[in-house]
Design brief:
Blueprint: E1 17-20, E2 29-32, E3 42-47, E4 53-56, E5 73-76, E6 82-86, E7 90-95, E8 98-103, H1 117-123, E9 127-135, E10 143-150, E11 158-160, E12 170-174, E13 178-182, E14 187-192, H2 195-200, E15 214-221, E16 226-235, E17 248-249, H3 258-267, H4 269-284, H5 290-304, E18 307-312, E19 315-320, H6 331-344, H7 347-359, E20 361-367, E21 375-381, E22 386-387, E23 390-391, H8 412-430, H9 433-438, H10 440-452, E24 468-469, H11 486-489, H12 495-514, H13 518-536, H14 565-569, H15 583-596, E25 617-619, H16 620-633, H17 640-653, E26 666-668, E27 671-674
Parallel strand pairs: 4-5
Antiparallel strand pairs: 1-2, 3-4, 3-10, 6-7, 7-8, 8-9, 9-16, 10-15, 11-12, 12-13, 13-16, 14-15, 17-18, 18-19, 20-21, 20-24, 22-23, 25-26, 26-27
């Protein structure tokens, strides 16, 4: 990597917390429930050979001390002398005689319904782990080392860590919410008005002084010795944490406060380190390029930084927050994150699907564009479940508005399709018979609703979405590509949405057939054939299918192929054969992708993928998905072009100005603009299937 100074999430599972670190200046820190980096100063360093001179990693801003202390000098290490080894489980920084490693095991979450308490407790501990090693073997004098941070919460002051009744721990906490703790007896906690004051403090005599906004741990390494110090970086939020639906963090079932978390974390430190290194080996041993490995690691870390495992009335509730926007369980993200979640913890997919049915489903009517007459619609699902720890009114999202087109309009048809696809892929992947039985009626309703959005007269159907939801109230439905132009942002007659609709009909055909519902199976199959025929029939002489069909749209879009992933993941390989029943569609999509994947159309000059020929706005999570489909399902060899695109995408993420935002999804011609701090990049887990 050309730039090693980028922020990355280091997060517990399901705690919506992060230790973000890596970008120069005070752009990282210990954050909770936020849509942006914490913007704290983090001080990690060691005393130099020169008296009263210290060096630190450059994760802090130059600041004015509370007192002028000219005899203290704290300088950042020369950036050219710093190295970083970045992986999924470990993130290691080295400079001169100091090594700092962060460990994040990133476990799959055991199903709370069936898992033993000790297994679940281990997986969802709200802590990450770190180790600081100082090599003082070549020096005849002792050195101070330090790991400190600045106060973040205006509601709480810094405090010296209280320890526990059965073990003495040393640390600094910001109120009851975050802490850095060690079990090393040679460490001392200090609170002061700046790092220079911390380093001058006589911490043995003033061990209870608590005025100031900088606190942390100061350690002494003896002459001619090499010593390592272990830390637990802890998070805790007690009580009710959401409104609309009242929930609390599930980890509070096992831990009563920060002290509990720290003791358990440090007691089991070696186990967590071992597990983090095992995660590293999974990525190291994968047959992927270094650029691909980096993108997978970066995306997974960001995903966990957005997760919450909540407890609601004795039950559990899984939430993935939408990065900087903090929107909760966005359904058009869930449909792309499903491939990671099925690998790690399939129960979370079921949990979200069930919550959508229970709280965030609705029935509507439908109508043609510019026509006030309404026809039967049916069941669909909201875009999301709320925002910023506030659950929405049942049946409504935080996002969708009536009477408009473009951003913030309704995504009724796409969310209906997304729920169908998530449910059927989940059933196919897990063979969950109970879920399949319980939701047969819902899937029947979804099938009827999907047909009704085509045409009220069966003889006039073409398999696409043609009618708008009554919820738009004269507006126009949109797709997940809300920030793009109509080439892919418009739902009506969308080629992108059309292929996903084809996949939904195909999945329903398979589901109904397995249930012995022959008439429904036959009808769903007929709709799938109709949809496939309509889309493939729009392949023009120039070798591409327009982004919007029948509306004189000439845009070329890559995500038209997205829907192919669902029969693949449901093991319906017959549907993907070029000489099979849907061969015309597969061949048309293959021709389309070969046509558009050229510079000036759907490739930027640096080789990066361009979602639409008529927009410079591209989304990495969707690119990852389409790269997999292009290579694995359509069997298109990209070779050198693939290498160039991966390098371009890495460079987008490592932009020297914008990479403080950890993983970012939405990029405008190589520049990060929106969808920062985002979870959806885990769609690239599919690369491991190659």
């Amino acid at each position: 990597m050309d730039n090693i100074f980028f922020n990355a999430h280091h997060s517990p599972v399901g705690a919506y917390s992060t230790f973000a670190l890596g970008f120069p200046g005070g752009k990282g820190g210990l954050g909770m429930e936020a849509g942006k980096p914490p913007n704290q100063n983090i001080y990690i360093g060691v005393e130099s050979d020169t008296e009263k001179e210290y060096k630190a990693f450059p994760f802090y801003d130059v600041y004015d001390s509370y007192e002028a202390i000219p005899e203290i000098s704290v300088k950042p290490f020369d950036s050219q002398g710093i190295t970083r080894k970045y992986n999924i489980g470990t993130d290691t920084w080295k400079a001169e005689n100091i090594v700092f490693t962060i460990y994040t095991p990133s476990y799959g979450v055991p199903d709370p319904e069936t898992a033993a308490d000790d297994e679940l407790k281990k997986a969802i501990i709200p802590a990450v782990f770190a180790e600081l090693t100082i090599d003082n073997t070549s020096s005849n004098k002792p050195r101070k080392a330090f790991f400190c941070y600045d106060m973040d919460s205006p509601s709480y002051g810094l405090r010296h860590f209280a320890g526990t009744t059965n073990h003495t721990l040393t640390g600094i906490a910001n109120g009851r919410m975050t802490a850095i703790v060690t079990d090393n007896a040679n460490a001392h906690s200090v609170i002061e008005y700046g790092l220079d004051c911390v380093l001058l403090e006589d911490y043995r005599r003033n061990s209870t002084f608590s005025m100031g906004f900088t606190g942390g741990l100061v350690m002494e390494v003896l002459a001619n010795k090499k010593e390592s110090f272990r830390f637990a970086i802890c998070f805790f939020r007690e009580g009710i944490v959401t409104s609309g639906i009242e929930t609390k963090y599930y980890y509070t079932k096992f831990f009563k406060n920060l002290e509990d978390v720290a003791f358990y974390a440090l007691t089991h430190f070696d186990t967590y380190v071992s597990d983090a290194m095992k995660r590293d080996s999974e990525i190291d041993n994968a047959s992927l390029s270094q650029e691909q490995k980096f993108q997978i690691c970066h995306a997974i870390k960001s995903y966990y930084g957005n997760t919450q495992l909540l407890e609601c009335g004795g039950d559990f509730f899984w939430v993935v927050n939408e990065g900087e926007y903090r929107v909760m369980n966005t359904l058009d993200l869930a449909v792309d994150q499903i491939f990671y979640e099925l690998r790690m913890n399939p129960w979370t997919v079921k949990n979200v699907l069930e919550m959508f049915v229970k709280h965030y489903s609705y029935f509507d009517q439908v109508g043609f564009e510019h026509d006030t007459k309404l026809y039967p619609g049916g069941r669909s699902f909201t875009h999301d479940m709320g925002i910023a720890n506030t659950f929405s009114k049942p049946g409504y999202s935080a996002y969708e508005k009536s009477g408009i087109g473009g951003c913030f309009s309704y995504m009724t048809c796409e969310q209906l399709v997304n729920w169908i696809l998530c449910a059927t892929v989940y059933i196919s992947y897990t063979n969950d018979f109970e879920f399949s039985e319980n939701y047969t009626k819902i899937l029947e309703e979804c099938f009827e609703s999907l047909k009704n959005r085509d045409n009220p007269e069966p003889s006039k159907r073409n398999g696409l979405m043609s009618l708008e939801s009554s919820r738009t109230a004269g507006g126009e439905e949109i797709t997940t590509y809300d920030a793009l132009d109509s080439s892919i942002g418009q739902a009506r007659n969308s080629a992108y949405l059309g292929v996903k609709i084809w996949a939904a009909y195909l999945a329903l055909h398979q589901f109904f057939e397995n249930k012995g519902l022959k008439d429904l199976s036959k009808e769903a199959h007929a709709q799938a054939k109709l949809c496939a025929r309509t889309i493939s029939g729009q392949l023009g002489a120039e070798g591409y299918i327009p982004g919007v069909l029948f509306e004189n749209n000439n845009s070329k879009v890559i995500p038209i192929i997205e829907g192919l992933i669902f029969p693949y993941y449901s093991n319906n390989m017959e549907a993907l054969k070029e000489d099979g029943e849907f061969g015309d569609l597969i061949k048309a999509l293959k021709t389309h992708i070969k046509t558009v994947l050229v510079k000036g159309v759907c490739l930027f000059e640096d080789g990066g993928w361009k979602i639409s020929s008529s927009s410079i706005n591209s989304w990495l999570s969707k690119i990852y998905l389409c790269q997999f489909i292009t290579r694995k399902i359509l069997n298109i060899k990209l070779d050198e072009a693939d290498t160039a695109s991966d390098k371009a995408h890495v460079n987008w993420l490592l932009h020297p100005e914008w990479s403080s935002w950890c993983f970012c999804d939405q990029v405008f011609a190589g520049i990060i603009k929106d969808s920062k701090y985002y979870p959806r990049g885990v769609s690239n887990i599919l690369w491991l299937d190659e």
